[in-house]
Amino acid sequence: MSDDFNMSMRKFLKQVGVTSQQAIEEAMRSAETGGKEFTARAVVTIDGLDMEHVVTGTIKGQD
Description:
Shape: elongated
Oligomer: single chain
Strand order of the largest sheet: 1-2
InterPro entries: DUF6494
Structural class: alpha+beta
Number of helices: 1
Number of strands: 2
Number of domains: 1
Strand content: 25-35%
């Protein structure tokens, strides 16, 4: 793969990670989570390609 491809991929994934973490933290702060576990799901698609990638996991709220 080319350097341009690798750089654009890394830039996109960094943006996904940073903005997702900020959104999750804001949502958890505004809710009374009480240590409850929440199921999280992230879906990445690429327009023009038949590609969908789903990642699931759990996030534990603050006590």
